[in-house]
From TrEMBL:
The gene is mce. PROSITE patterns: VOC. Belongs to the methylmalonyl-CoA epimerase family. Gene3D superfamilies: 2,3-Dihydroxybiphenyl 1,2-Dioxygenase, domain 1. The lineage of its organism: Bacteria, Pseudomonadati, Pseudomonadota, Alphaproteobacteria, Rhodobacterales. GO terms for biological process: L-methylmalonyl-CoA metabolic process. Pfam families: Glyoxalase_4. It comes from Salibaculum griseiflavum. The keyword Metal-binding applies. This is methylmalonyl-CoA epimerase. InterPro entries: Glyas_Bleomycin-R_OHBP_Dase, MeMalonyl-CoA_epimerase, MMCE/EMCE_epimerase, VOC_core. The keyword Cell cycle does not apply. It catalyses: (R)-methylmalonyl-CoA = (S)-methylmalonyl-CoA. It is an enzyme of class 5 (isomerase). GO terms for molecular function: metal ion binding; methylmalonyl-CoA epimerase activity.
Amino acid sequence: MIGRLNHVAIAVPDLEAASAQYRDALGAKVGAPQDEPDHGVTVVFIELPNTKIELLYPLGEDSPIAGFLEKNPAGGIHHVCYEVEDIIAARDKLKEAGLRVLGNGEPKIGAHGKPVLFLHPKDMNGTLTELEQV
Ligand SMILES: CC[C@@H](C(=O)O)C(=O)SCCNC(=O)CCNC(=O)[C@H](O)C(C)(C)COP(=O)(O)OP(=O)(O)OC[C@H]1O[C@@H](n2cnc3c(N)ncnc32)[C@H](O)[C@@H]1OP(=O)(O)O
Ligand SMILES: [Co+2]
């Protein structure tokens, strides 16, 4: 069921500084900031040869990453995202296995215009896990 690693997300306290570091120090291909109001974040995608890095910065008052940045003020790895072919089949199988699907359990459209879901980090070895249908 599980496919490619789509991205690793890193929450950062300064989006411009983090973008500049990947662009200038690491020589990476860095995209433009993208506001995602439905998700409460601004994202910058960094294209690597084999996957992507998603830099995350809080957007709005109820951002799901605000608490994470309070606990980790220097930033840190926030989630990993795996590709699946059928997100509803994946969701139902994981729910049957006892994993908690976050939110109302229905996929939302993510930063790539594709349906996404999140699994609770406590059910995934301490790692918040996003699934993206490709
Ligand atoms: C741009 C769109 C999309 C994409 O297309 O790529 C995105 O990536 S959006 C990214 C942001 N969206 C989300 O994170 C949505 C899912 N997240 C949530 O629903 C919540 O953030 C959460 C995971 C349920 C956490 O809720 P919160 O209220 O912030 O924290 P708690 O303090 O209640 O956390 C409970 C427990 O879990 C630990 N935790 C929290 N976040 C993480 C994390 N990112 N990684 C690992 N562990 C995490 C937290 O430390 C608590 O543990 P204890 O202290 O042991 O109780
Ligand atoms: Co993500």
